[in-house]
Amino acid sequence: MRDKSGHIWAAWFDGSFDPKQGYYIAQVLPSATARVKAPASGAGSLANNQPLEAVALAARVGGGVYLAYCVPTKTVPCAHIALWKVGSATVRAVPGSATGHASHVAIAPGPSGHLSIAWFDAGQNKIRTVRTNAAATGFGAVRTLNVPRNIIAFDGLQIEGSQGPLDLVALVVQNGATPSYWAAEIRP
């Protein structure tokens, strides 16, 4: 992912079952930096919160690199979703994500500095989204989308919001069906 200054960043999940487990980020170009672990993103003694898809990483139009990820407890892989501005001591809990059933976290930059975060709530069988303010220091209302009925597998969620509306694409499997894509668009 390329930030506003043209630097290239990489983020990943270290799935080792020891204290190193968790989400990491590092700048890779123009010069490599040491990897940094996201705050409260995991440990060997906590539930495995491996993201099951690409790590949710975005460069904000107004500057800054942001990571959205599940914060685990000893027994819950995703107690809530955190939004972290890389390098900041502040981590913000994403509203509406503390159900204990969040997964498939995605993030997308929008115009004017907004960030959108989306996730699948397996307990409610719904997709939830929230958008930050232009400074990415606060959140708007959580929006909820119904997904197709009779889902037996939810395999992925990606979002894109650079033009204003938020486009969502999910890979789902319904009872007795082959995998299919489901799409929706949300206006700000």
What is the terminal separation in angstroms?
Answer: 24 Å
Task: Specify the biggest β-sheet.
Answer: 4 strands, antiparallel
Compute the number of helices. 0
Percent of residues in beta strands: over 45%
Instruction: Give Rg in angstroms.
Output: 16 Å
Determine the fraction of residues in helical runs and give it as a percent range.
Answer: under 10%
* Quaternary structure classification: single chain
Whole-number count of domains: 1
Quick recap:
By secondary structure, the protein is mostly beta strands.
Explain what the structure shows.
- Helices cover 0% and strands 47% of the residues.
- The chain has strands spanning 8-14, 22-29, 36-37, 56-59, 65-71, 80-85, 91-93, 102-109, 115-121, 126-131, 143-146, 151-160, 166-174, 180-186.
- The strands form four sheets. It has a four-stranded antiparallel beta sheet, with no helix packed on it.
- It contains no helices and 14 strands.
- It has one domain (8-149).
- It is globular, with a radius of gyration of 16 Å.
